[in-house]
Amino acid sequence: MNLPSYHKLRYGVMAFATILTIALPFITINGRHIFLLSFDEKRLELLGVAFAIQEFYLMPFLLMFGFLFVFAVTTIGGRVWCGWGCPQTIYRVIYRDLIEGFIFGLRRRGNKQKPIDYSKPINRVKKLAAFLIWVVLAFLAASNLSWFLVPPEVFFVYIQNPSEHPVLIGMILIIAGFLIFDIAFLGEKFCAAICPYVRVQSSMYDRDTVYAIYDQKRGGKIYEGDTKLGKKPLGENDECTGCEACVITCPTHIDIRKGLQLECINCLECADACAVVMNRLGKPSLINWTSARADSGEGKTRFIRFRSIAYAVILSLIAVAILVMSGNKEGMLLDITKSDRLYKIETVGGVKRVSADYIFQFTNTGDKQRYYYFEILSPEGLKISMPTRAIRVDAGSKAREVVELYSDEALAQNPNEDARLKARIRAYAQDDDNISIMREAIFIYPAQSKLR
């Protein structure tokens, strides 16, 4: 009989996720990272494309995609994210199963319920050694997570002078401290009592959601509500042996035979444990990864249904929006700030001239040096006094320039009030016709009474 080996597949997925998380910060495309949210340089790098802080409009879409993706996975496969991909679970597997169990033998293989016997001095020494190993791994994990905010090539330079980078060091200490407390002391209590996701996941389940279900028709009834009827079912034809292998192996300390519970993370270790026992009797496992519809005999699980289609459509739309916006990335950015002085009035060649100063900040979001300039499209009569030369901006850099706009013509005829005119400005790269953006600024033209 072929036994389910969910734990092998699960550990494979966890290993892949761990390797990917470690490797991803080192992967670059044309010198840009796959994902980097740099607060130091106020830049987002996504799939090899760099976005300045003014282009962070992508972040809400990325967050929406991430949350909705997890919700969609929950609707289809239950809390499989919690049991297979959540960092909390992966870290607990490393600490509890690998370090404490496999390396030091403090836990019997598959037994996650029996407490460690600290009456033996050797076990206390092993526990301390396991804890110290996890402390080291926690700092490595904290550093790895920080690489998505501070790229590795910068990170390893910064930590050589920790006193000059207290924010980075503080961030690593906080993350590492949390991981040490959470994984070594809090454990699965975090999943059941603290994680906000567990509080909303039950509302995403329907009768076609796939999760770990105990086959009560074959195995027999163990619980009546919250009351346990016995260690094993009382019926003659009930197949559950009462071995409680499913209980012993559960990392969140529940009895799956009680039914769907808040703490279940769909790790399916109970299904594997039951399969081993039932195989000896020549029978299939009493615990399966199935849906309530299939378990009750109403029919096959409907993976394609309204909810799954709706999630697929919404996720596709968000993904398309992200791709379109990243593909239409502006080759330059321009912020215009008016100076404190509203305007300056002077007489030039017998004509009243009104001028105003602005601060133009150009950002070159490309990977080549550019020369930028601009022109005034409206109102007619508004001209550029300075600068008279193009503004050079290196790749990925910014440049600030004081700009003076003026008019020798009467742009407004209001006798008593200043007029607020909307100046339309086109900025462009002199060496690339495809780089051009439109901006607006307010030009204050004084009342006629102030010009006399």
Q: Total strand count, please?
A: 18
Q: How much helix, percentage-wise, in residues?
A: 25-40%
Q: Which runs of at least 5 residues are low in confidence (pLDDT < 50)?
A: none
User: How many domains make up the 3D coordinates?
Assistant: 2
Largest sheet data: 5 strands, antiparallel
**Binned strand content:** 15-25%
Shape: elongated
Mean pLDDT: 87
Give the CA-CA distance, first to last residue: 101 Å
Whole-number radius of gyration?
Answer: 32 Å
Structural class: alpha+beta
SS element count, helices? 15
Give your account of this protein's structure.
It is elongated and about 110 Å long. The chain is built from 15 helices and 18 strands. The strands form 6 sheets. Strands 10, 11, 12, 14 and 16 form a 5-stranded antiparallel beta sheet that branches. Strands 15-13-17-18 form a 4-stranded antiparallel beta sheet, with no helix packed on it. Helix 2 runs antiparallel to helix 14 and helix 5 crosses helix 7. It has 2 domains: 329 residues, no CATH class; 120 residues, Immunoglobulin-like. A hairpin with a 4-residue loop joins strand 3 and strand 4. The chain is 39% helix and 24% strand. The longest helix has 26 residues. With 452 residues, it is α+β, with helices and mostly antiparallel strands.
In a nutshell, what does this entry contain?
The chain has 15 helices and 18 strands.
Which key phrases capture this entry?
single chain, 452 residues, alpha+beta, Immunoglobulin-like, 2 domains, five-stranded antiparallel sheet, four-stranded antiparallel sheet, 24% strand
